[in-house]
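Task card 7
Instruction: Convert sequence to structure tokens.
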Amino acid sequence: MKMKTAKILLFVFVLLASSFASAYAAANMEPINAFFNRGVSFVLNGELWQPKDPSGKPLTAIYYNGSNYLPARALAEALKVPIDYDAASQKIYIGGKPGEKTPIFSMPMEIDNIYAVLSKDPNETAVNGGKYKQVLKIDQYADIVFTIDRKYKRLVLDAAVISPGEHEVEFSLYNAVEIAGNTANTLLEKHTVSPDDKVKRLIFDVEGLEKIRIHVQSPNLNPYIYARIVDTSFFDNGDTAASDGLK
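Output:
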């Protein structure tokens, strides 16, 4: 009896789901007469390019009403533009979701665990008069690697030098993708934090990058720097020209 009831409920659910899908299709989708255009090829930045779906299967352009069409995701990824889909609102965001912030410590990261350590210890999260829930403490030097998959335009880094730090500290941005080759050693951007700064906001342009490395060290190679990155840091798709700072 219970199995029969379950089957009936499942049937009703499937029937309702089908009805909603049909209603949505009727209201928002319109049939067209289109063709796969297997004769067209693509040249991207001077080189032949084959669009593919997420599983790696080659895609063919669709020809309709005098124009060739490709899936938005394949084209956005080829152009290294962030793309996201919100199923609830039926919106496709090309260039990232505006106003959305991703806290830095919620991102996958690779850090040097000898000289850079994540801490929630209240004695270590008090930074120059401010209280934070989590910090990345760097007492000598560090390399922090983030995989961002071209989803963001900015890294907004809130950093400080605490007592007994006496020296300026440089925060340098590099491209960390393995296929970058020699460009992985090319400095993309650099900011400096002074012991006189309480917590300084550093804004890095990371648009189009898949994987980045932040190198933290004294410009004079002083062994102890006592730098901190605090949990108000984030990735977003805001204005890369912004340069406001925390004091």
